[in-house]
Design a protein that fits this description.
- The strands form four sheets. Strands 9-8-5-4-10-1-11-12-2-13 form a ten-stranded mixed beta sheet. Strands 15-16-17-18 form a four-stranded antiparallel beta sheet, with helices on one face. It has a two-stranded parallel sheet with strand order 3-14.
- It folds into two domains: 335 residues, Alkaline Phosphatase, subunit A (3-Layer(aba) Sandwich); 74 residues, 2-Layer Sandwich (Arylsulfatase, C-terminal domain), CATH 3.30.1120.10.
- It has twelve helices and 18 strands.
- It is α/β, with parallel strands linked by helices.
Length: 453
């Protein structure tokens, strides 16, 4: 009898451990807006301090060759949600507030695909988004329409003011479908709402997926005054434009730190996968630093599409590890999280899981052509798309629909300074160009215009 009593007692001690090992992790995906590749102190910014984001990068695996799916907002966000190239997701360009007599919106999210939140719900996840949505203002394209159980954020694209939260005098702050009118700086508001959600999940049995989408450091470059004063006092002689952006990023870093601290305080950090990335590169005209890359937001140069990214998962991903050459894109996040959740993707998808890379396991780097697209109006773009394509080390790009394509060997010329003429490598050029044409042809099957705008 004593033997069985001891065995029972031992089973009680072992059971929680086994349960913890088998427990599905939570997911926190933090996507910031227009963060320059070189605009974190861990990426060499000499005039900027980002201790909280730096600490997150140090706690997991840093990816130095991670790419956003587009050099602007909506398309990249569509790729995160669908696991598809933006044009395959119906969002080749930016979705905007309709304006009278102006063509402003260049996408319409497909509603016939299984979204990331919907997929994770089949694995038992509670799904939430806090912050910027930017993929549709009306049904059936709002967060709650596409699989999110909870939405607390901003439906639209950019805010015209971080304190009034309006866009073209229209009000887009929502709690699910209810209009809300919070006070304060948008970064602080989204941080508060994210911590509120995390606290609400502390005692819940089901895991959660929280997509935290800050609109910082997107324009307008509007940091809280005390944060700006601190930067000006510390960085003697700093350009005023640059100082404002640095202050906005440092304020964002503070918000990220509060969210990570909340995970710790609620006892959730050890079983939460945290992924940090940006929707595209930094906007050079407002002082963003994308060094050592060429170009910035809106460009198909590396500075427009390569983004500092990390994934942290305590006890699973080696802290301080760095992937310099492995290439993944925003669309790869969906299948990666799905595989971690034990719900691998069975339907057709452009993205592929990079979970083996995270776990330090062998990963077959199968060659795949990669594509970037953006559709935009105004005089510079004329309502026409422009693209980039990459196969191996070779990249083809143009930054408007009206200029010739340029080809680069990224291994030999990572700064994209010396375009290679087609005649110098005709086979490479033709391979890139034909791959791009094939992609454009396939993506043309998916409409991007609303029937009733």
């Amino acid at each position: 009898m004593k033997f069985f009593s001891a065995l029972f007692a031992l089973s009680l001690l072992i059971a929680p451990t086994m349960q913890a090992e088998n427990e599905k992790p939570n997911f926190l995906v933090i996507m910031v807006d227009d963060l320059g590749y070189g605009d974190l102190s861990c990426y060499g910014a000499p005039d900027l301090k980002s201790p909280n984001i730096d600490g997150l990068f140090a706690s997991g695996m840093r990816f130095d060759s991670f790419y956003a799916n587009c050099p602007v907002c909506s398309p990249t966000r569509a790729s995160l949600i669908t696991g598809l190239y933006p044009d395959n997701a119906g969002v080749p360009g930016v979705i905007r507030t309709p304006l009278p007599d102006r063509a402003t919106s260049w996408g319409n999210l497909r509603n016939d695909v299984t979204t990331l939140p919907s997929h994770l719900k089949t694995a038992g996840y509670d799904t939430a988004i806090v912050g910027k949505w930017h993929l549709g203002l009306e049904a059936p394209d709002r967060p709650n329409d596409v699989g999110f159980d909870f939405f607390h954020g901003f439906l639209g694209d950019m805010m015209d003011d971080y304190y009034t939260h309006l866009r073209h005098d229209q009000h887009y702050m929502r709690k699910n479908e209810e209009k809300v009118d919070p006070e304060g700086h948008a970064t602080d508001i989204f941080t508060d709402w994210a911590t509120d959600y995390i606290k609400s999940r502390k005692d819940e049995e089901s895991p959660f997926f929280l997509y935290l989408a800050y609109n910082a450091p997107h324009t307008p470059i509007q940091p809280p005054e005390d944060w700006l004063e601190k930067v000006i006092a510390r960085e003697k002689g700093i350009d005023k434009k640059r100082a404002a952006l640095v202050a906005l990023i440092e304020h964002l870093d503070h918000g990220v730190g509060r969210v990570l601290s909340c995970l710790e305080e609620e006892g959730l950090r050890e079983n939460t996968v945290v992924l940090f990335t940006s929707d595209n590169g930094g906007q050079v005209s407002v002082g963003a630093r994308n060094a050592p890359l060429h170009g910035g937001k809106q460009d198909m140069w590396e500075g427009g599409i390569r983004v500092g990214t990390c994934v942290s998962w305590p006890g699973k991903i080696e802290a301080g590890s760095v992937q310099e050459d492995h290439i993944s894109l925003t669309m790869d996040i969906y299948p990666t999280l799905a595989e971690i959740a034990g719900a691998p993707v069975k339907h057709e998808m452009d993205g592929r899981s990079f979970l083996p890379v995270l776990l330090g396991q062998p990963f077959e780097e199968e060659s795949r052509p990669l594509f970037w697209v953006r559709l935009e109006g105004n005089a510079r773009y004329g309502g026409l798309p422009y693209h980039a394509a990459r196969v191996g080390d070779w990249k083809l790009l143009r930054n408007t629909p009206f200029e010739p394509y340029q080809m680069f060997n990224m291994a030999e010329d990572p700064a994209e300074e010396n375009p290679i003429q087609r005649g110098k490598a005709p086979r490479r050029y033709d391979e890139l160009f034909q791959s791009l044409l094939n992609h454009i042809n396939e993506a043309g099957k998916y409409p991007w215009q609303r029937e009733n705008p």
